[in-house]
Structure prediction request, 458 residues.
Amino acid sequence: MSGTFTLINPATAQPIGEVARASVEQVDEAVARAVIAQRAWAGLAPVARADVLRSFARVVEAHVEELAQLEVRNSGHPIGSARWEASHVAQVLNFYAGAPERLSGRQIPVAGGLDVTFHEPYGVVGVIVPWNFPMTIASWGFAPALAAGNAVVLKPAELTPLTAIRLGELALEAGLPEGLFQVVTGSGSVVGQRFVSHPDVRKVVFTGSTSVGTDVAAGCARELKPVTLELGGKSANIVFADADLEKAAASAPGAVFDNAGQDCCARSRILVQRSVYDRFLELLEPAVAAWRVGDPADESTEMGPLISASHRSTVEGFLDGAEVAFRGSAPAADDPLAGGFWLPPTVVRADRGHRLAREEVFGPVVAVLPFDDEPDAIRLANDTIYGLAGSIWTENLGRAVRVARGVKSGVLSVNSHSSVRYSTPFGGMKASGLGRELGPDAAEHFTETKNVFFATDV
Ligand code: NAP
Ligand code: MG
Prediction:
């Protein structure tokens, strides 16, 4: 398949441009260029690779506003969030620019010689990105992969390719060698699938749904190709009776409605200890009412539209028969933006067995459930196939430690909702993924260990 794909501004439902769909042959050409570029790149002095990545970081930093505006138009992200995302890409590049000179191997004591290990790059790495955070998630793959001496072919989601395309141009402007970092637009079943099957793509990084990720992993297994998977989530925000309830309630909307709930880390279940359940909902209602939904270009907007009409109907489908406690706002019918893919933030009371209590919605819908005591909270938090993120609100230190150790998730925060920092590891347990991104070890994950023994016997 080739041809073009029409991009839509989700806040207006108006077309904003066309983007090319690459064919399998075009992917193969890109991979062939990457193979050549990678050999030269891996042969450079570590400090030379570090310098190029720092230059890439500076060029991205100088284009934060342009990248942010692209994301506003293509993805409907509020401008404040989009600026954070673009700056984050520069920070990720800066952080991993330190890696080429720090990828130390080991010297291992052995008899009769000297034994050392090398962290060898895989070669070409394929990075497949979803539509929810197009540039940040791309950078979590390409920055450490490049730092470790690999070339990267990147496939953005078909719906949201504009910032990735621009990052590919900025890389060349920054002095990255031709062919080292290529953005190939097109569909998952053609371009993404070819990354999986192409023998010269030696590692795949996939972020997206658990169902597609499972197929990608199966395809990579057939090629004996390592794969990192960042998949879905159904993260719990656990509020104990001894917590600072005002703070917990005030911060709960941001933890789930940020990016209109289209966030793998969204705290889409709020588990509240039964004795404070009613009080918590009383505090939550005004916080949800105050959550600012509207024009993504407006500096004060906190939440924009959903990504597409079809995704909005999927999200609405979850509300069939649900017990809605209260809702926030969305542009009204007479608003110039009324044609966009809006859905007001929605709070539901859900039973433990309900779909809303267990399945990923990926929209601005949060299920609130009561629990009885600490063991019940841990059991309920773990009662899902996912295990990505979560928050624990309590003033009791021992409880915070016990619950943090008991919840089977890769990324937890106590008395906050933070999930992503470029300097700390990120990733999921169970059906939320395999492997970790970001943090001090990510560049090493884009290498294979080689052991070399040098005989010293005469
Ligand atoms: P998706 O449908 O799984 O798509 C993700 C990416 O995979 C897209 O680029 C897609 O291409 C591509 N793809 C589709 N079919 C493929 C195939 N057969 N082989 C290779 N690639 C293929 O996910 P989505 O709907 O874009 O994103 C939403 C999901 O991502 C949610 O479940 C969310 O939780 C998850 N997510 C997880 C994280 C995390 O870090 N854990 C972060 C963000 C999102 P197209 O362009 O053709 O769609
Ligand atoms: Mg999809």
